[in-house]
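Slide 14.
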Amino acid sequence: KWNSSTNTLIKYKDKWFYIKNGEWCRDTAIVKYNGKRFYVKNGKVDFNFSGKKKIGGKIYNIKRGKVR
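Slide 15: predicted structure.
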């Protein structure tokens, strides 16, 4: 049964996607998954990005897609 309240990351064809309220969310955000935070760009975890990003008024240090 499809759960329309699910917020998670899922792996599909070797890429990680952000699922919000049961649908693929194409936002750019910081997403918490299994106790870790990840940088999501346009709905996919961006494991290529390292640097600082300002999201929602807060600055995050990111290394290869993971928030430090």
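Speaker note: The radius of gyration is 12 Å.
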